[in-house]
Design goal:
- The chain is mainly alpha-helical.
- It has one domain: Protein Yjbj, Chain: A.
- The protein has five helices and no strands.
- Helix 4 crosses helix 5.
- It comes from Halomonas heilongjiangensis.
- Belongs to the UPF0337 (CsbD) family.
- This is CsbD family protein.
- Pfam families: CsbD.
């Protein structure tokens, strides 16, 4: 699934994101609104990941959808 589709279906996909990244709160997921760059930034912040690793995780998650 591409990121435009993810943004459009974010309400449905938040639960899947929550199961992948349990440290993200519901409020944080609501604020992300399915935007890739915001998700990557939040993964960096919450999990202490390098940008490249956060991008890799986000893209792998999107491919699995």
């Amino acid at each position: 699934m591409n990121w435009d589709q993810i943004e459009g279906k974010w309400t449905e996909l938040k639960g899947k994101a929550r199961s992948s990244w349990g440290e993200l709160t519901d409020d944080e997921l609501d604020q992300l609104q399915g935007k890739r760059d915001q998700l990557v930034g939040k993964l960096q912040q919450k999990y202490g990941l390098a940008r490249e690793e956060a991008e890799k995780q986000a893209d792998e998650w999107a491919r699995k959808l």
